[in-house]
Specification:
By secondary structure, the protein is an alpha+beta fold. The chain folds into two domains: 99 residues; 65 residues, Head domain of nucleotide exchange factor GrpE (Nucleotide Exchange Factor Grpe, Chain A, domain 2). Strands 1-4-5 form a three-stranded antiparallel β-sheet. Strands 2-6-3 form a three-stranded mixed β-sheet, with no helix packed on it. Strand 4 and strand 5 form a beta hairpin. The longest helix is centred in the middle third of the chain and has 71 residues.
Length: 204
């Protein structure tokens, strides 16, 4: 008898069929699930207009940046061109002044050792030295040539001389006209005489 009662208790289930209980669960399920919300048409229109304005603004900013970059590039290019033009004009002026220096040195050579012209020669020497000093202050320097190997970028071969003892082919053995440079730029190449093995060139 006792076992029958226990079996009946285990099989006993309670089902709540009250409509309000089911309705409460249904309401809770609906409240927790997201519902799509339709925006008013004027809000969607405003959002589209804002997006369009932002896109236009970004385009304007990009164009402005490009214009600024182009302007800076143009300024830098003009600055470089002006610097090159100033340098070219500067070299041309100094190259012309070198002719004046040549005349002064020729005057010294003409004066020689004559006592009658010693006073004039001393004056010319002073002017010549002052002129060279002024050129040096502007960065104009004389190109070293005598005894150096011939360099076509800095020397101009006026003539050639037979190779003598102790000399090597291509060595500068005399300077006919001094050359000058402004920094790394050659204003005027040095006119030189270059030693060559003439006998070797004449061999068959």
């Amino acid at each position: 008898m006792g076992d029958d009662k226990n079996d009946k208790k285990k099989k006993f289930n309670v089902v709540d069929r009250r409509f309000w209980a089911q309705g409460e669960d249904a309401d809770q399920t609906e409240e927790t699930s997201p519902r799509p919300v339709d925006k008013p048409s004027y809000v969607a229109k405003l959002e589209r207009e804002i997006e369009e304005k932002e896109r236009t603004l970004r385009d304007y900013i990009a164009q402005h940046k490009q214009k600024v970059d182009d302007f800076e590039s143009a300024k830098e290019r003009i600055r470089r061109e002006m610097a090159k033009e100033v340098e070219r004009n500067q070299r041309a002026v100094f190259a012309d002044l070198l002719e004046v220096l040549d005349y002064l040195e020729q005057a010294l050579q003409s004066a020689g050792e004559s006592e009658a012209k010693s006073a004039l020669a001393e004056g010319v020497v002073m002017v010549c030295d002052l002129f060279k000093s002024k050129l040096s202050n502007y960065g104009v320097t004389r190109i070293e040539a005598l005894g150096r190997p011939f360099d076509p970028s800095r020397h101009e071969a006026i003539s050639v001389a037979p190779l003598s003892a102790g000399q090597i082919a291509g060595q500068i053995v005399a300077v006919v006209r001094d050359g000058y440079a402004l920094g790394d730029q050659v204003l005027r190449p040095a006119g030189v005489v270059v030693a060559q093995d003439i006998n070797r060139q004449q061999r068959p």
